[in-house]
Amino acid sequence: MYTEQEAIQYVRENDVRFIKLFFTDFYGSIKSISIQPSELERAFSKGITFDASSVKGFLGYAESDLFIVPDPSTLAVLPWRPQSGRVVRFFCSVRYPDGTPFEVDTRKMLSELVEKARSKGFDFNVGTECEFYLFKCDEKGNPTKEPYDMAGYCDLAPRDKGENVRREICLTLEQMGVHPEASYHEEGPGQNEVDFKYSDVLNAADNLQTFKIVVKTIAARNGLFASFMPKPLSDKPGNGLHINISLYKDGKNLFAGDNFSDEAKSFLAGILFRTLEIAPFTNPIPNSYMRLGTFEAPKYISWSRQNRSQLIRIPSGDEEAARMEFRASDPAGNPYIDLYLLLSAGLEGIEKHYELPEATDIDFFNADPEETRFMIRLPMSLGEAKKYCEKGDFIYKVFPKMLLDFLGKNENETAEIDRGEI
Predict the structure, then answer these.
(1) Separation CA 391–CA 363 (nearest Å)
(2) 151: Cβ contacts below 8 Å, ≥ 6 apart
(3) Is the distance from CB of 296 to CB of 308 less than 8 angstroms?
(4) 303-312 as b/e, with b when 16 or more CB fall inside 10 Å?
(5) CA-CA distance, 319 to 252, in Å (whole number)?
(6) pLDDT above 90 covers what percent of the chain?
(7) Phi-psi category of 130—alpha, beta or left, where left has phi over 0 and alpha has psi -120 to 50?
(8) Does residue 195 carry a pLDDT above 90?
(9) Torsion from C-alpha of 52, 54, 59, 63, nearest 10 degrees
(10) What share of the chain is helix, strand, coil (3-state, %, to 5)?
(11) Which end of the chain has the lower number of beta carbons within 10 A, N or C?
(12) Do residues 8 and 41 touch, judged by C-beta distance below 8 A?
């Protein structure tokens, strides 16, 4: 963790020649402005201006000037850039010209929610598990739909050709202060997964954004294309983003033990209750709905212990590792929004003392239709998900008015765009 003065000193003493300032648009795409080291003090004190009218989900043309201000605690060297004349990056907050926070800065929204929860005695740890495909490129360097290998779940080299790429990804992340917990070949051909050690909420979202950049960069360096598309191959497993959340009160993990606390149960119940309304954000593009209900992706609103066919499962683990795992979300979304909505729903459940329904101990992958006929199904399309969202009241309660206005004006717009992340 660096303070402003420590970050300035690091840049001066470590041959830093270039500084990249990262911020995220509403749809989760990472944007960047580069500055010289001589501008860093000004960036901390006043910010660096950009044209907000060109950023999805920000302002219109009439109010286009916004500023980004780096968070000194997020300083990291980009290891793939030259070590002589280094390049570093910071994640940034977004502000108005007068210095007040911009309401639709999703990173700020998440940070403020965490502080609000902390004031009520609650805290969280978050760990993510993110899947991606590696595809070959043609002779011109353009991506193809040919997987890098034909390996399966947890296969070894030489069948698993992605082993060296994953190792390079993990070593690069460690150099940037991000700590992978495990990496392996997933079920699909050319499909890989990296799981992260839990951390505080904001750091977990930042780490996921960093991870996407690193995966794309390392894949390209190896002549490959990395895809975070939820369902890049129609007949193969999709890419999921499993989000693990531990809930703490007074230093105690409320998911610990065989019978976790009433507040943890209400937290789960809140997420289950609002899952349909938040689906357009956790699963934000039409392709997202090709994944749900296939292979190991969930199909119904349900929970259970350990059962991987559920929307939410409670994995086995000791007191420190006790947690819930949300399995519907995918990597196409904005991780700050994903966490903001999941935590908001869970906290609503605690506040309103929602009752957790009985666990559904059914193997949905092989269930008889009679067993599932009373289950609530996840949306089958983005259009269906949007209808659930519009009919509910949750988004209108937790999103700032400016963001609601943007969504109202752009209700037919989707995030089905390149974004450099898919």
Answers:
(1) 31
(2) 159, 160, 161, 162, 185, 189, 190
(3) yes
(4) bbeebbbbbb
(5) 9
(6) 81
(7) beta
(8) yes
(9) 70
(10) 35, 25, 40
(11) N
(12) yes
Question: In 250-389, where do the E strands start and end?
Answer: 252-253, 303-305, 312-314, 324-326
Amino acid found at 327:
R
114, 32, 100: which is closest to 70 by C-alpha?
32
Least Cα distance to 109 among 421, 402, 419, 316 occurs for: 402
**275 membership: H or E segment, kind and range:** helix 262-282
State the DSSP H helix or E strand holding residue 124, giving kind and residue range, or none if neither: strand 122-137
The pair of structure tokens assigned to 125 is 């740890």
d(CA 31, CA 92): 10
What is the C-alpha separation between 353 and 261, in angstroms, rounded?
A: 12
Q: Which two tokens stand for residue 206?
A: 């930042």
Query: Is residue 57 within 8 Å of 403, Cβ to Cβ?
Result: yes
Contact between residue 143 and residue 115 where contact means Cβ atoms under 8 Å apart: no
The answer to whether residue 307 scores a pLDDT higher than 90 is no
pLDDT in tens, 58-89: 866 556 889 999 999 999 999 999 888 999 99
Q: State the amino acid at position 188 in one-letter form.
A: G
* pTM of the predicted protein model: 0.95
Sign of CA dihedral 331, 335, 338, 339: positive
| Cis before 158? omega within 30 | yes
**Half-sphere exposure of 57 toward its Cβ, with a 13 Å CA cutoff?**
26
Cβ–Cβ under 8 Å, residues 237 and 191: yes
Query: Mind listing the pLDDT tens digit for each residue in 373-400?
Result: 889 999 999 999 999 999 999 999 999 9
